[in-house]
Structure formats: C-alpha cells, structure tokens
Specification:
- By secondary structure, the chain is α/β, with parallel strands linked by helices.
- It is built from eight helices and nine strands.
- α5 runs parallel beside α7.
- The radius of gyration is 17 Å and the shape is globular.
Length: about 240
Amino acid sequence: GQVKVNQQPGDDAAPGTNRAKPRRIAVVPAYNEEPTVKGVLERLYPLVDELVVVDDGSTDKTREVVEKWLPEQDNAWMLSFDDNQGMSAAYYLAFTDLRQRLATGEIGEDDLIYTVDADGQHELSVLDELRDIAVADGLDALIVQRDLSTYPIYKRVGNWVMSSWASLWAGHRLRDVESGYRIFRAAALADALDYYEGYKYSETVEVAVVLCRLGYRVRNDVMVPVPIFRSRTRLVDAAIDLAMI
C-alpha cells in the first residue's frame, strides 16, 4: 500500500524517549556524500534512538563533516574504512557490530535496525509510519518499495528484472529488491549474516533473498515516494547482483 507522507514526526520521535517500544538503530553508509550527509543525519537523528554512520573511505570531506556533527549528539557514532570497500562491506561492518551487541544483550532481539542512504533519496517523513507497520505486522523485514514512476525507463525495467529474479530464488514476491530503505528485526538480521556477506552493491538483494529462504516474514509492497533520483549502479553491478542472488 501507499504510505502517505507526514510533514512532522510523532511525539515519541526524540532519541530514547519511549523505551516501551523496540529500540530504533539507524545505519547510514556514506561514500563521498559531503553535500547531503549532514542534512540526512540531522533529519534522521530525532527519529531514532541510536545512529551509526559508516564512512566507506570517502575521498571528499564526508568524514570531516560527520566528525564535526557527532560531538553534538549523545547517541551517534561512526565506523569507517580507510579505503573504499563498497556499500556491502559498509553494511556488513555495522551489522556484525550490532550482532555482537545482540549476543551480549546490549540490544534486544526485537529491536529495529533501519538502513538509510546518505544521499537524501529516502523519504524520512514516513519513517515512523513504516516502523508502526513493521511492529503491527510482526515483520522481520520491511523493505520499502520505492515509487519508481519518475525513474528512467531503463532503471524501471532493470529493477523489474532484478526483483523478478530475486523472487524466483526467494520463493516470495519481491517488488523492489534493490531498495536500500529498510527496517529489520535485529535477531533476523543477525541470523541472515551467517549466509551472506555481499559484494559491492549486492547486500541489498542478497539479504532479502536470504531472509525469505530462512522463512522470515518479509514485506516489500509498502510504496514510498522518492524525493530525488540518485543511482551509482552500473551494468556490471547489475550483473554481479544477479549472480550473487
């Protein structure tokens, strides 16, 4: 279903103000996102309880911008690579850290892990609504279906091919398997890490297929508008993703 865009977050959006609900931990991979990363972090931070930025060896001032922003926040920090490793490696670094915290009881099995891009293409005004859907439906993963109506035709066709191929292997209908705007239940995500690591951009497609194959409850039919069109994937990345699925 289509999610209506709200202009204001809910009253419980401030970090740590509502402990009765699952803890909300956002993971934001960033590679050369100097123009947009601070704005994304400032909009996202009030909507979560913790925020983890992963600087993937940026060669611009992304890391400097994040390092200047972090000291003003109580529940945000950064992981980093010295050299660019790819988005999949950035996610794997953060997720393995979270899995270790889950194992020690620092975070709970039903806590929620959000993934948000640093380039501003994810509509954050609907994040609380997405969280409510994930909790109400008892989901292990809510993978947002992006409204691709404004995308170039070749991107829409490519996404359909990728999602159809993923659906075949997942045994579950996936409508936008390439979407990086997601909410995971911590225990399910930790379990999935035993079955994949990801290469370049393939983490997004792999984790969706793995979770479905493991029998977890996954939704990929909640459509959300895309504020801006951004794409760094190339034909070779698409070929890698198809092979990794």
